[in-house]
Please model this.
Amino acid sequence: MSRYHPAVIAGVSIAAVYGIYIIYTAACVDSGTRLRRSNAVRRSRRVHQPQGMDGAAEPPADELANTEVSVTADEDHSQGLKALLYHIAEDNAKRKGFQHRGIFCEGCGMLPIRSVRYHCLNCADYDLCSTCEATTQHPITHVFAKIKIPLPVLSQPSKPLEPWYPGKLTHFPRPPSPQDIQALSQSLQVKEHDIFAWWEQFHCLANAELVRLDGSRRTAINRRAFDFAMTSHRWHGRPPSVHLYDRMFAFYDSDSKGAILFDDFSRGMAYIRGGNRFRSLEPALRGYDIDNDGYLEPADFLRMFRAKYLLDSQITADLIEMAAEAHTKTSSDMIKSSQPLSALFHEDD
Model:
């Protein structure tokens, strides 16, 4: 036979075309499913999904990488949140086992107080549970100690401490109205919750009343309370630099009335902590103008620098003295203990 049969030729042609198609399809599938470094994690989650043969374009590698990072970050955040909630629940369960025997809550009457106990350091005998501490009305100038582990009743100090704030509660009127708070917030360009926070700070410092010509009374901070709040107890109420404290008091008492009202206090706090601190240096430069003549002279700067030097020197001396006291106490406790004296030198190292 010199010629091939037409059926044979057709069969061979179909087989050749089918073989080429199989090779081409295998190459495309292999290149499309090969794992790359950037999307290995993402592709591994879709290995059981059937892959379409419609030739649809796959997302870019960088998009898959961003998706992978986002999924991983969400999983880490979820695991961290679960761990935190578990820790809080476990800690609360442990705290409920703590019972402060012989101590009852002045707010709800719980006896004994369970979990955390709050003891007032400025009262002879006043304790609250963790729930009542957040809701019970108590003088804002008093400081509470948070006691987690129960103390023996007779071992705790019975003498209350002197209040750390100079404020006198008998002089305080009601807080400013919401309208006054809003007006003050708009004029000072600060948030309303800042005004409320400043009112409580002013509440703890104010110790006097300022009587105006019309007979109205305004709560105020006098110079005595200002010096008490701005000096260390080691100085016995006498600042090392009276001149510097004069200028600090004048910063708030801008109209020289001898007292700081809440409006003055808010204005000063808004300048120090607000956004207008670096816009105008006029309030700061006014502190150097001692004679209020509108001019700054070299003598004004020298007087302020000397006052600042005296204050820094006193603060440094206090820090050295406190460090020496702490070191002496540590050494004394080490000597009284059963440890050898060589442990004292290792402790310093």
